[in-house]
Design a protein that fits this description.
The protein has 444 residues and is of the alpha+beta class. The chain has 25 helices and five strands. The protein has a five-stranded mixed β-sheet with strand order 2-1-5-4-3.
């Protein structure tokens, strides 16, 4: 059994090109730098409905709070916490100003209104893509500044990590130490060997310490202490597989399957990386992986640009998808796509089709689940009319809205004491992601 290879449409390529151009606009980049990611990823209409009857004093201050897991253990001592503030424009959320700014920039391309909205939604995904790149690379002990980064882009509006890293390594303004560390992470063998010769003797010794992770394997190899340990590099790369396309082919058949199984379960790779790895497995291993991780694979098809393939993939996975996993994928679409007002794709026809195609016992299980009330609103609403997301937001009895992008869970809540009443502790969320990023409001 094999997953079908996906291809970008010409329209998706064109949308990506325009969205990247809008993102690169100096005013747009300045807004992101001043107001932060949260001001660019939450749609203003849904946010204002969620805040509801909250008094204006609530808008005097917005704060951000992030918790990052430094490794795969859920030991609280291995969490990194950061806090910040978001400047507000009077009593107006920056999200509204962001949408006005994007609308002005996109309108200069003189495209149909529907296409303009798709581009604005794609710019939001690009903001999330850059946030993920910065967060992933912040875990490397380097001192590269944002002004030194010039992103290269793929046709589907993703950062071309290899080309971006190559340009950083070629930048002589950046220290040799930092370039060496980056080369080790990406497994650029020639660059690593060249930069090793430019390090001082003391630096070469220091890089053999355990705390330098992947760099230690390269340092030991370059000093002739041991052969290059590709399996060790792969194991150390489970959180951030920067060098995936280099180290994965060097693993034996069993190591490849075991590494990929862990990576998929931890939601540590994206669909294009999964496709690359599946090509290196035999047919039995591919089938076994699909049997073991149907939910995690389906989640990959909720991200742009492959959402349109989701229903076909579900058809392939029905034999392996438990009723609990079916519940989870419906809940994810409802709570993290439809309710927060995601504009990158129309998920309502998808959830209706999944419901119609689901076996009777799956329907029976869902009908007694808590999510069924919201699901019923969606599947029974007149499909020839625009679905009002406000119905779901107002029916949502939680004190937060959330969605996951890659390995980060983004949340918006009304007050910081939300965490004291939050039904799931951070440990629960951090089993599903590596980072939680929150914006909350306070009166002071």
């Amino acid at each position: 059994m094999q997953l079908r290879k996906t291809f970008l449409s010409l329209q998706q390529m064109c949308l990506s090109k325009v969205a990247i151009a809008v993102f690169k606009d100096p005013e747009v980049k300045s807004f992101i730098e001043i107001y932060g990611v949260h001001s660019c990823i939450w749609p203003s209409e849904e946010t204002e409905i969620f805040l509801g009857t909250t008094p204006d004093t609530l808008f005097r201050q917005a704060n951000t709070f992030a918790v990052s897991k430094l490794n795969q253990r859920n030991d609280v001592s291995e969490f990194q916490v950061s806090e910040g503030k978001v400047p507000l424009i009077g009593h107006v959320l920056p999200n509204k100003q962001w949408e006005i700014l994007l609308g002005k920039k996109v309108s200069t391309f003189r495209l149909p209104e529907l296409i303009q909205k798709e581009i604005m939604a794609l710019v939001r995904l690009i903001v999330l893509e850059v946030d993920k790149w910065l967060e992933d690379h912040a875990r490397i002990p380097m001192s590269i500044t944002s002004t030194q980064i010039s992103f290269h882009w793929t046709q589907d509006a993703k950062i071309d990590r290899v080309k971006t890293a190559k340009e950083l390594i070629a930048n002589n303004v950046i220290s040799v130490k930092d370039r060496f560390l980056l080369g080790c992470q990406y497994c650029f063998e020639d660059d690593v060997a060249l930069l090793w010769g430019m390090l001082s003797g003391l630096q070469q010794v220091v890089f053999q310490e355990v705390r330098f992770g992947i760099a230690r394997f390269w340092a030991n190899w370059l000093r002739g202490v041991s052969p290059l340990d590709w399996e060790g590099i792969a194991r150390t790369s489970e959180c951030n597989p920067f060098g995936l396309r280099s180290f994965f082919p060097h693993l034996n058949e069993v190591e490849r399957f075991n590494w990929l199984l862990v990576a998929v379960r931890r939601r540590g790779i994206e669909y294009n990386e999964l496709q690359f790895c599946l090509q290196k497995l035999n047919e039995n291993q591919q089938t076994e992986l699909i049997k073991e991780c149907p939910l995690q694979i389906l989640e990959m098809f909720l991200e742009w640009p492959v959402q349109g393939e989701l229903v076909d993939v579900v058809d392939l996975l029905w034999p392996y998808l438990s009723v609990h996993e079916f519940h989870d994928i419906l809940n994810l679409i409802l709570s993290q796509k439809i309710i927060p007002g995601s504009k990158d794709f129309n998920y309502i026809p998808i959830i209706r089709e999944l419901w119609e195609k689901s076996p009777s016992r799956y329907k029976d299980f869902i009908r007694v689940a808590k999510l069924y009330n919201n699901l019923k609103l969606v599947i029974e609403y007149d499909r020839f009319r625009c679905f009002p997301h406000s119905l779901l937001i107002r029916s949502n009895d939680g004190s937060s809205l959330m969605f996951r992008s890659a390995d980060t869970m983004f949340l918006i809540c009304k007050k910081k004491d939300f965490f004291r009443n939050f039904r799931f502790p951070f440990h629960y969320l951090l089993n599903k992601c590596r980072r939680i990023s929150v914006i909350y409001f306070s009166e002071n």
